[in-house]
């Protein structure tokens, strides 16, 4: 009997050793500290936009902090495609990492519709706190169902309206205006509620559409209105700030999971630090962009506060549609509770 007990003990020990030795892929990965990992980055924005600087900062940080184990290649100016194409490429693994406005990503995971609810965040600091908090993280984690690792949020910003027809001094001025929207049902519903005529279109086609008059106007944060020169075909700029759109930074999940834990932390820390840096650049850029548009002789007005309040009232059905598209109002309720903290 004693022999049998000893045999079982040896067997148990060997299984345990193998278990924590061979199967422990972390140790194997850790041991292979000479392995180089190449991150192929696709960016949908032009090099003059601070999101490009965000990627440059990310690259500096990961190459420095990985002792050369992480190499990068940055394909900027949407040469590998816009939001949707790049997100599909990250999903397939043909591109390792990208950023996209959250709105097109709602077509991959419906929880991203949350960010197309108008007037969700009263200011930047609230947006940053909520995005970097538990609700923002929950939305990022939902991307896992699409084979994507959500890494964090950088800033696109509060959206303003440009058009070639007239200043928007009251909501009625939007009536019948052909406005390009992002390819996102909730975004389109918001503009319908305000009496405009929404046309969904990829970002890369917007300038030509404005120039040819296919659409009368579009809406984007000032930095993009400047970097993509929408103020040239669109003489009128109305500062409405009706939606805060984040950029979501994403990575192919299989690639991320194959990184040793220490390099996963290097990537996550670099996305966070580069994001803080990019957010600061955006605050500066917004002032510069407004000056450029002013110097170009555009007609600029602020949507009056009472009109913004009317917009908030008009948007209530959009919140209901958002809950319908997302399957419930739970995430909306959670996010609004975070906003109010
Ligand atoms: C840039 C887009 C842009 C977005 C849009 O790729 O499509 O209007 O606001 O920032 O993501």
Automatic annotation (TrEMBL):
Signal peptide: 1-19
Biological process annotations from GO: transmembrane transport
Compartment list: Cell envelope
Family annotation (PROSITE patterns): PROKAR_LIPOPROTEIN
The entry's keywords: Signal, Transport
InterPro entries in alphabetical order: DctP_fam (IPR018389), TRAP_DctP (IPR004682), TRAP_DctP_sf (IPR038404)
GO cellular component, one term: outer membrane-bounded periplasmic space
UniProt xrefs under Pfam families: DctP (PF03480)
Keyword Signal (UniProt): yes
Sequence similarity: Belongs to the bacterial solute-binding protein 7 family.
Listed name of the protein: TRAP transporter substrate-binding protein
């Amino acid at each position: 009997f004693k022999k049998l007990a000893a045999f079982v003990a040896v067997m148990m020990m060997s299984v345990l050793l193998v278990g924590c030795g061979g199967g422990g892929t972390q140790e194997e990965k850790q041991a292979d500290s000479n392995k180089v990992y190449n991150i192929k980055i696709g960016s949908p924005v032009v090099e003059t936009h601070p999101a490009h600087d965000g990627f440059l900062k990310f690259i500096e940080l990961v190459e420095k902090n990985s002792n050369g184990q992480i190499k990068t290649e940055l394909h900027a100016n949407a040469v590998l495609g816009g939001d949707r194409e790049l997100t599909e490429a990250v999903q397939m693994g043909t591109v390792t990492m990208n950023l996209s406005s959250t709105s097109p990503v709602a077509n991959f995971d419906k929880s991203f519709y949350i960010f197309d609810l108008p007037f969700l965040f009263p200011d930047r600091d609230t947006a940053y706190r909520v995005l970097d908090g538990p609700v923002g993280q929950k939305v990022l984690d939902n991307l896992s169902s699409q084979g994507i690792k959500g890494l964090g949020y950088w800033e696109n910003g509060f959206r303003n309206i440009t058009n070639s027809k007239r200043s928007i001094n009251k909501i009625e001025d939007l009536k019948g205006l052909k406005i390009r929207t992002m390819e996102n049902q909730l975004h389109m519903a918001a503009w319908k509620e305000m009496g405009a005529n929404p046309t969904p279109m990829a970002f890369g086609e917007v300038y030509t559409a404005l120039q040819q008059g296919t659409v009368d106007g579009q809406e984007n944060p000032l930095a993009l209105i400047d970097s993509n020169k929408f103020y040239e075909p669109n003489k009128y700029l109305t500062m409405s700030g009706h939606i805060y759109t984040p950029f979501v930074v994403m990575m192919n999940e299989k690639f991320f999971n194959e990184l040793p834990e220490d390099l996963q932390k290097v990537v996550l820390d670099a996305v966070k630090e580069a994001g803080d840096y990019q957010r600061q650049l955006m605050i500066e850029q917004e002032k510069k962009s407004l000056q450029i548009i002013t110097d170009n002789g555009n007609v600029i007005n602020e949507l009056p506060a009472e009109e913004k309040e009317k917009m908030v009232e008009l948007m209530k059905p959009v919140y209901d549609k958002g809950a319908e598209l997302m399957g419930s109002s739970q995430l909306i309720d959670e996010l609004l509770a975070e906003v109010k903290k």
